[in-house]
Amino acid sequence: MDRLDELQVFLAILETGSMAAAAHKLRRSASSVTRTLATLEERVGTRLFERSTRRLTATSEGLSLADGARRLLADYDTAIREHGSTAPRGLLRVTAPMVFGRRHVAPVVTRFLMRYPDIQVDLVLADRNVDLIDNGIDVALRIGALDSSGLVARQLGTVHMVTLASPAYLARRGEPQAPAELVHHELILGTAVRGLAEWRYRVDEREQVVRFTPRLQMNDVEGVLHAAREGFGIARALSYQAAPDLETGSLTRILTACEPGPIPVQLVFPSARHMARRVRAFVDFAIEEFARLPMIH
Q1: Residue range 16-35: average pLDDT?
Q2: For the segment 143-181, what is each residue's pLDDT rounded down to a tens digit?
Q3: Of 211 and 274, more confident
Q4: 86 pLDDT exceeds 80?
Q5: pLDDT tens digits for range 192-246
Q6: pLDDT at residue number 73
Q7: Rounded-to-integer distance, Cα 37 and Cα 59, Å
Q8: What is the spatial distance between Cα 20 and Cα 245, in angstroms, rounded to a whole number?
Q9: pLDDT at position 195, please?
Q10: Strand partners, 158
Q11: Mean of per-residue pLDDT scores for the chain
């Protein structure tokens, strides 16, 4: 039994003069009110009411307890009200992939901090899925389908896996018109897992897998894009990673009709229930901010 609830029941009996009236006021059963009063009297070790056939009258101990109970419940209500009305505050821990985090999450975080001066943010950039619970992370930005981890997700938009080459390379070697033609080109493989040399496409609504031996392989996307800009060969990257090169024309997007489906960009967090105000504020702010990013829609 909630001990604050015991005091609320006690005061209701005192104010109404009977357990039946208190039960009606509190919208609970008379037996529940009777049990609650008995528990409270056992806890304080004395009778709080003198019983008669028509009315309950508070004892001196009951009147003394009533004064303290009113103060305690008033203080409780004030604390809850003040906590609920204060601006978000405290430390917020956020994680995101390296490139996306550097280019897009970090600016969102700085604008968020300008709006909420009582919040501090620890932004962890890592190209791996950091465990939220084990690492004390409040919010993570994830790109790709989520596993069944029980995390709550809010989708921000989507990105695409795009195939890229420099204009100089395409002028020298020609532009492939179908995924199968890629095996006749110099290919740059970017991966954090060595040995998986394959790219997947959609051709006539069916998946087509292109397996190949890369001329160059590295686990850093910036290095992959640099090699492609230099005209070494054809590469793949996520659309947000390649956006600056596509805007300047240093890289050209090819095989667009065969690109696989969109990849979700999501904010994930452990639970939507009893979410800290700083976490809710950041999730709402980030959804609003990322809605303005054309490369994730």
Answers
A1: 86
A2: 888 775 667 888 888 999 999 999 999 999 999 999 999
A3: 211
A4: no
A5: 555 568 899 999 889 999 999 898 999 888 999 999 999 999 999 999 899 999 9
A6: 81
A7: 14
A8: 76
A9: 55
A10: 264
A11: 87
Q: 3-state SS of the chain? A: CCHHHHHHHHHHHHHHCCHHHHHHHHCCCHHHHHHHHHHHHHHHCCCCEEECCCCEEECHHHHHHHHHHHHHHHHHHHHHHHHHHCCCCEEEEEEECHHHHHHHHHHHHHHHHHHCCCEEEEEEECCCCCCHHHHCCCEEEEECCCCCCCCEEEEEEEECEEEEECHHHHHHHCCCCCHHHHHHCCEEEECCCCCCCEEEEEECCEEEEEECCCCEEECCHHHHHHHHHCCCCEEEEEHHHHHHHHHHCCCEEECHHHCCCCEEEEEEECCCCCCCHHHHHHHHHHHHHHCCCHHHC
Task: Provide the token pair at 86.
Answer: 């204060």
Structure tokens at 47: 């009778």
Tokens of 82: 């003040």
Give the CA radius of gyration of the chain. 32
Give, in order, the Cα–Cα distances in Å from 59 to each of 44, 73, 125, 131: 13, 21, 64, 57
Greatest Cα pair distance in the chain? 104
Is the CB of residue 136 less than 8 Å from the CB of residue 279? no
Per-residue pLDDT at 140 exceeds 60: yes
Contact criterion met (CB below 8 Å) for 98 and 126? yes
Task: Give the tokens for residue 99.
Answer: 């490139």
Contacts of 29 (CB under 8 A, 6+ apart): 23
Half-sphere exposure of 182 (CA within 13 A, CB side): 29
> Which token pair is 297?
């829609």
Judged against a pLDDT cut of 70, whether residue 13 lies above it is answered with yes
> What pTM was computed for the model?
0.64
